[in-house]
Automatic annotation (TrEMBL):
Leader sequence segment: 1-22
PANTHER family registered for this protein in UniProt: PROTEIN FAM185A (PTHR34094:SF1), PTHR34094
Superkingdom, natural source: Eukaryota
Record-given protein name: Protein FAM185A
Keywords assigned: Signal
Length: 152
């Protein structure tokens, strides 16, 4: 049976029961069952020590810093960044008051420019969240989770 699971932003294929035919030592064919799991990035189960410490696709990315700002549900978001920016809606079941903006910066740890000059501020008078940096590492990525009623 195949089931689609989720990894870190990617779909994963899980094989819950894999049946194989194998020849045993006595020379007879036998049906055996084994558990198998294929998983994409985001880790998974495998033989201990079989996973490389550094991904074959480049250095491992991780969350470098996070902010949780208390905001007005009818605010604005202003961003000026030389890197990837993703904006997602805030979960209304987790935050029914829609009064939070969550900001997470991910990148490669150890890069000096990763967070250099990054400003994350909320101006209550303008009801505006500003995320600004001209010198942040271009390989970094910023993910913003904002209320559904937040405007541009």
């Amino acid at each position: 049976m195949f089931a689609l699971g989720s990894g870190w932003g990617l779909g994963c294929l899980w094989l819950s029961q894999l049946r194989v035919w194998a020849r045993d030592a006595a020379g007879r064919w036998a049906l055996g069952a084994c558990q198998a799991r294929l998983c994409c990035s985001g880790g998974g189960e495998g033989r201990p020590g079989s996973e490389p410490e550094v991904s074959p696709f480049g250095p491992t990315r991780q969350t470098l810093k996070e902010w949780a700002l208390l905001v007005s549900p009818f605010g604005r978001l202003r961003a000026r960044l030389p890197c990837h920016l993703a904006v997602r809606p805030l979960d209304p079941l987790t935050y029914p008051d829609a009064d939070r903006v969550l900001v997470a910066v991910s990148g490669v740890e150890g890069r000096a420019r990763a967070l250099a000059g990054l400003q994350v501020e909320y101006d209550e008078a303008l009801k505006e969240v500003a995320i600004v940096s001209d010198v942040i590492d271009p390989q970094a990525s910023v993910e913003v989770t904002a209320p559904l009623k937040f405007g541009k």
